[in-house]
Amino acid sequence: MSLSLDTCRSLAHAALATGREKGMKPLGVVIVDARGAVRLTLVEDGNAPLRADIAHGKAFGCVMVGVGGRALERMAKERPHFIGALGGLTKDRLTPVPGGVLIRDAGGAILGAVGISGDTSDNDEVCALAGIAAVGLKADTGA
């Protein structure tokens, strides 16, 4: 199974709707497939210019390392040299904080990841989880 464009659109729209319902700041959403290729980028009006890049780094880092954003954050604290090396290997396209969530199928295979940026990392993650749930896939935050 792969992430269809329709699935990506539905996921992103559900994530953004969650942000609006909860009164969050404007969000940027990036969804990548299991290879790290961008499938969809949506940025709300008023989202700060670098937020889409941050969202991409959250999603890209998750699929490249195979763990959710919370696991990457732990690694950054516990093994900063390792995360520094990964930053170099990924050409600084790795953002090791919550808000990056792996998207898995029912069997646990990684289909891709969603990265969201615009509010706090915890709130970004809430929106990612809502989007993934809305399309009936499994979320992996790395918690």
Task: Count the domains.
Answer: 1
Helix content estimate: 40-55%
Q: Regions with pLDDT < 50 over 5+ consecutive residues? A: none
CATH homologous superfamily name?
A: Haem-degrading domain
Pfam family, one: HbpS-like
Protein name: Glcg protein
InterPro entries: GlcG_carb_metab_protein, PduO/GlcC-like, PduO/GlcC-like_sf
Describe this structure in words.
- Pfam families: HbpS-like.
- This is Glcg protein.
- It is a single chain.
- This protein has one domain (5-140): 2-Layer Sandwich (Beta-Lactamase), CATH 3.30.450.
- Helix content is 46%, strand content 20%.
- The mean pLDDT is 94.
- It contains five helices and five strands, in the order H-E-E-H-H-H-E-E-H-E.
- A five-stranded antiparallel sheet has the order 2-1-4-3-5.
- Helix 1 crosses helix 5 and helix 3 (69-78) packs across helix 4 (80-89).
- The protein is globular, with a radius of gyration of 13 Å.
- The protein is of the alpha+beta class.
- The chain starts with a helix and ends with a strand.
- The longest helix has 17 residues, at 5-21.
Summarize the structure.
This is Glcg protein. This protein has five helices and five strands. It is α+β, with helices and mostly antiparallel strands and 143 residues long.
Note the main attributes of this structure.
143 residues, alpha+beta, Beta-Lactamase, five-stranded antiparallel β-sheet
SSE layout and pairing:
Elements lengths: L4 H17 L6 E6 L4 E6 L7 H15 L3 H10 L1 H10 L10 E5 L5 E8 L3 H14 L3 E3 L3
Antiparallel strand pairs: 1-2, 1-4, 3-4, 3-5
